[in-house]
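Example 3.2
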Amino acid sequence: MRQIVLDTETTGLSAEQGDRIIELGCVELVHRRLTGNDLHLYFNPGRNSHEDAIRIHGITNEFLRDKPKFEACADDILRYLDGAELIIHNASFDMGFLEAEFGRIKNRQALLREQLAGVVDTLLMARDLFPGKRNSLDALCDRLGVDRSTRTLHGALLDAQLLADVYIHMTRGQESLLSAEAAASSVQRIHTEMLDLRGFDLPVLQADDREAAAHEAVLMELGKAGGGKSIWQISMEAGKAVS
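Structure, written as tokens:
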């Protein structure tokens, strides 16, 4: 399975009121392993960021002035996301901004929805796993032992990298479940194969005189060591008496 861990930085908190994406960070996982095929872009939003937003991500208006518009990169982004399952912390926020950005471009918003395999919200996952606790990305990193020492400001690529690590930690039990299912399947297969042996006419090999005498000698030694007849001798005698 191909998954993309995604994060954005924006000019503010409301896509509905015209705030825009200024940074997109994506980290690719294939079969839960980092591939290094990441995507990191900055955009000129055509408007200034709110001061509160700049204090969070540190991306200045001046830095963004020479960056491309989102629409100039839209097709490349769609190609990168095509067929992937997105993993996002507080997915409604980032997806709201992504849909607003693609909605400004003819026929692109519907194409985004069609191309995605699905969206996983790690905030909702964390609330199920750790009810009543803080479940911000920082809190999850601390709880799960993910090193965030290099994170002094929010950044889309860095946050996506941290979230990828957090997601792998939170879903590690799924690997055990899959292993258990595989083991059960293997046991069932072996059991079925053993049952199939009943269809064969297997030969019965009787002990010859030499082997029978050697067996009797072993039973005698066991009886002597135990101070009486061994249980095998008692059983054999009982069987002869019945017959």
